[in-house]
Every structure is written in structure tokens, then in C-alpha cells.
Amino acid sequence: MKKIIKIEGMSCSNCARRVEGALKKLGNLEVEVNLESKEAIIKGDLSISSSKLKEVIEDLGYRVKSIN
């Protein structure tokens, strides 16, 4: 299973690394953040709720548009 999170507000590779690092701290997750497509692809332990994923990203100052 995987989740795709659309994120607004990332403007550089440092932004993408911040989001990736914060999401990896949540558990045993494989995280890939793509700056061009403005999305994070998460694979692994998907027992983490979408609301928790959104909270972590928005605490960094970005906006989550959708989680699929």
C-alpha cells in the first residue's frame, strides 16, 4: 500500500528534504518527496493516520492539498 500526499508551499530541495525527514521520523516508512510534482509518496507502515501525516507536514509550514 502507498499514500500520495499533494503538498503546497515547497519551493526548494531543502523544503523537500525537511518534509521527507519529518515523515520518516514517524516510523518504518519509505518516503520520497518530489519537488516538481509537489507530492510525497509514502510506502510501508500505513497504520499512521492521514490526519497525523497532515499535521506533521503542516507543522513545518506547508499545506496539504490531498492525501490518497
Q: How many domain units?
A: 1
CATH class: Alpha Beta
The side-by-side strand order for the widest beta sheet comes to: 2-3-1-4
Query: Architecture, according to CATH?
Result: 2-Layer Sandwich
CATH domain topology: Alpha-Beta Plaits
Task: Characterize the overall form.
Answer: globular
Strand tally, please? 4
Biggest pleated sheet: 4 strands, antiparallel
Low-confidence stretches: none
Order of helices and strands: EHEEHE
**pLDDT averaged residue by residue:** 95
- Measured on Cα atoms, how large is the radius of gyration? 10 Å
Oligomer: single chain
Q: How much strand content do the residues show? A: 35-45%
Percent of residues in helical segments? 25-40%
How many individual helices? 2
Structural class: alpha+beta
Terminus-to-terminus distance: 11 Å
